[in-house]
Each structure stands twice: as structure tokens, then as C-alpha cells.
């Protein structure tokens, strides 16, 4: 693996050909499972889907089998319309509904606090999409808008294991994943939001994407923090500035699916990007 001196060192043309090939092969709906994204396809209404997406992405840490089980358990309680469930409910109702909920570090208090924040946002602005739109209007950058959005949902001071704050240094992979689902629209990502554009997105940086990005020469940083996520996004932006997160789903199939090993991706990459991989 080589160290990255600067993004200018990258062979953009060869990388673009490789990434487009990966996107064409693996950005397919039939490759979604096992991925919490699959739950969004059960809901046709955007107001339901944006709540389902927030729940599913917030629980997207740990073993994938447990993630799917936890998301299923929450959505089963919410019934056919998570939007109606949230609008009609309150803390006392939800504390009873989720009294035994636990997903790794996250318990019922985290889930109920998040739902209370979602309800407040909907009561004030009508939807989570419009909540983000308002957050962007009240801040000076998209990054600050991300922070304001999270702040409105779970509060500025109280820590919630389901929704980390970008301003605290974390890569905020789960929140960036949520934005990808809600903003991008292709065969895999359902989209629907209008408050953000694909060019506003940051790569949802997890262990797999961090490793892939280092091998491709997009970063030499060892810490998978928000600074690294931005650096990786900038590298992808050299290939597609209007949609830098385009390749995220296809590349991360190699870290999620048992039938797609990461070493296979690296073997595919070697003859196509030359000295960048090695």
C-alpha cells in the first residue's frame, strides 16, 4: 500500500474506469441483502421511509445479522406507518413499547429520545427533509447543517448512541449513510429528499471503506474520523464531483456480503489502476 502525497498524484482516468466498472457490476438491488437499506423498500410514502431510514441507519453498527434483527423489532412495533406511529405517540407510550429494547450500546432510552426528537421536528417543520432544509438555512455550511439537524433530533448536550454529532470528530458513518439513502436516487438508493443534493454528501466511512480508500490511494490517514471521510469524499469528487458517494454501495458489498471477499476487489483493482494499488 502506498502513502498518498496528494490527490494530484492519482490517475483519475484509470480510477474512473475501474470505479465505473465496479458500479456497473455491483450497484444492483439484488445485492442489497444483508443491508439495513432493504427495509426502506417496504414503504412507498416518503414520510414513512425517512423515519425508517433514520431508524435503520442509526442501528447500523455491529454484526449485520443483529442489525437486521434490531431494525425488524423496532419497525414491527411501529406498524404499517412509522410516520403515523410517531405523530400519534409520546414518550410514555414509547417507553412501554420499547421497554426491553437493546442493540449493543443502545437501549430503550436512546430509541425513545430519538423518536421524541423526530416527533418535535415533524411537529415544527412537517418532515425530516424540511427539518434539514431549515437547518441549512440557519447555518453557514452543509457541515454545520448536519450538526444542527442532529442537535434538533437528540439535543446538543445529551449524548445518544444512535445519532453521533459531526462536530465531535467521529466519521458519523451512520448519519452519512442515512443522508445517502435519502438524497441519492438510483437502482439502489431510493432518494426522495430535496433539501440536499448528491454533491453535499460525505462518504459513510466504516472500516471497509477506509481500507478500500487507503488501497486506492484516496487517503493515507490511519484514523477513520470525519476528517478522513472528507478527504476520501474529495478524492471521489475528482471522479464525479456531482455525486462523490456514488460508488459507496458497490464498494462496500465486499465488506458486507459473505460471497464477496474484499481481496477479490483488490485483485480486480490491480491491473486497472496500476501503481495505486499494491
What report would you give on this structure?
The chain has helices spanning 12-26, 46-58, 64-78, 82-88, 91-97, 108-125, 128-137, 142-154, 173-183, 207-216, 226-239, 248-256, 262-273; strands spanning 102-103, 106-107. By secondary structure, the chain is mainly α. Strands 1-2 form a two-stranded antiparallel ribbon. α2 runs antiparallel to α9 (173-183). The radius of gyration is 19 Å and the shape is globular.
List key phrases describing it.
single chain, 278 residues, mainly alpha, two-stranded antiparallel sheet, 13 helices, 2 strands, 55% helix, 1% strand, globular, disordered N terminus
Largest sheet features: 2 strands, antiparallel
DSSP strand count? 2
Order of helices and strands: HHHHHEEHHHHHHHH
Q: How much β-strand is present in the residues?
A: under 5%
Please bin the fraction of helical residues: 55-70%
Rounded Rg = 19 Å
Q: Main sheet: which strands, in order across?
A: 1-2
Helix vs. strand class: mainly alpha
Amino acid at each position: 500500500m502506498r502513502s498518498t502525497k496528494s490527490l494530484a498524484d492519482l490517475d483519475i482516468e484509470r480510477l474512473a474506469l475501474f470505479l465505473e466498472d465496479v458500479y456497473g457490476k455491483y450497484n444492483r438491488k439484488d445485492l442489497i441483502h444483508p443491508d439495513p437499506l432493504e427495509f426502506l423498500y417496504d414503504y412507498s410514502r416518503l414520510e414513512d421511509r425517512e423515519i425508517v431510514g433514520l431508524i435503520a441507519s442509526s442501528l447500523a453498527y455491529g454484526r449485520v445479522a443483529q442489525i437486521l434483527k434490531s431494525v425488524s423489532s423496532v419497525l414491527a412495533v411501529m406498524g404499517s406507518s412509522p410516520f403515523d406511529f410517531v405523530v400519534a405517540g409520546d414518550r410514555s407510550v414509547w417507553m412501554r413499547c420499547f421497554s426491553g429494547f437493546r442493540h449493543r450500546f443502545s437501549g430503550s432510552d436512546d430509541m425513545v429520545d430519538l423518536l421524541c426528537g423526530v416527533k418535535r421536528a415533524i411537529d415544527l417543520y412537517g418532515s425530516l427533509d424540511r427539518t434539514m432544509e431549515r437547518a441549512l438555512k440557519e447555518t453557514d455550511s452543509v457541515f454545520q447543517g448536519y450538526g444542527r439537524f442532529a442537535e434538533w433530533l437528540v439535543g446538543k448536550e445529551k449524548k445518544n448512541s444512535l445519532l453521533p454529532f459531526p462536530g465531535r470528530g467521529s466519521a458519523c458513518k451512520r448519519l452519512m449513510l442515512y443522508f445517502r439513502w435519502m438524497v441519492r436516487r438510483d437502482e439502489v438508493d431510493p432518494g426522495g429528499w430535496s433539501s440536499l443534493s448528491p454533491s453535499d454528501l460525505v462518504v459513510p466511512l466504516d472500516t471497509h471503506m477506509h481500507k478500500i480508500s487507503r488501497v486506492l490511494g484516496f487517503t493515507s490517514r490511519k484514523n477513520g474520523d470525519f476528517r478522513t471521510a472528507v478527504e476520501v469524499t474529495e478524492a471521489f469528487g475528482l471522479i464525479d464531483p456531482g455525486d462523490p458517494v456514488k460508488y459507496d454501495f458497490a464498494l462496500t458489498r465486499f465488506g458486507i456480503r459473505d460471497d464477496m471477499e474484499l481481496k477479490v476487489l483488490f485483485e480486480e483493482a490491480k491491473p486497472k489502476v496500476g501503481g495505486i494499488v499494491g
